[in-house]
Task: structure prediction
Amino acid sequence: MKYQLLPKLRWGLVILFLVSSLVFANLAYSNNSEFNRLEQILTGYGFIVKQEIPPKINNSGLRPYGLMNSKTKTIWINPVVFELGNARSVLIHEAVHAAQTCAGKGQISLVNLDLEPPQFTRPYFMRYHSYRREIEAQAYTVQVQPDSLAIVIELLEQNCS
Ligand SMILES: [Zn+2]
Result:
């Protein structure tokens, strides 16, 4: 009897662990007030923020952490970033692209930004080419600033209002 109960107990603990992780993941998610604030601002400017796995962008099958479609003004935030703890910076990156979309009236264009890309961000945007490289350089530059949220909110105000 003892030996039959033990595996059941173990499964019970596993299930309890899974349920409590979900609860804690949810708590961490709802406590992410800066994420929610930026999401609300983006929604106010007519962007749609989807917490879904982004569609495939090429044949690599890789799904990015975040993606923005400037034609449909849709931003995808891959739910995995909530587990990784970088949801805020991924949304800030995509919000820069949103401001760039407003700047170009639907065509993604550079925004006015008086910041140089920090050296350590170079590998992230150097893999892109020509104009796209400059577009990504702006997004990575803002994303890594200590006051990134304030900067991106200002960029959205300047370009989307
Ligand atoms: Zn980007």
